[in-house]
Amino acid sequence: MSIKLFDDTSIAMSRKLALNYSTSFSLGIRLLSKDCRWAVFSIYGLVRVADEIVDTFHGYDKQRLLSDFKAQTYQSIEEGISTNPVLHAFQLAANQFGIGKNLIEPFFNSMEEDLDTSAHNAESYSEYIYGSAEVVGLMCLKVFCSGDEAQYNHLMPYARSLGSAFQKVNFLRDIRSDVYERGRVYFPGVDFNHFSDEDKYNIIQDVKKDFAHAYKGIVMLPVGCRLGVYTAYIYYLKLLEKIERTTAVDILESRVRIPNSQKIALLAKSFVREKLMSA
Question: What is the CATH architecture assignment of 4-278?
Answer without folding.
Answer: Orthogonal Bundle (1.10)
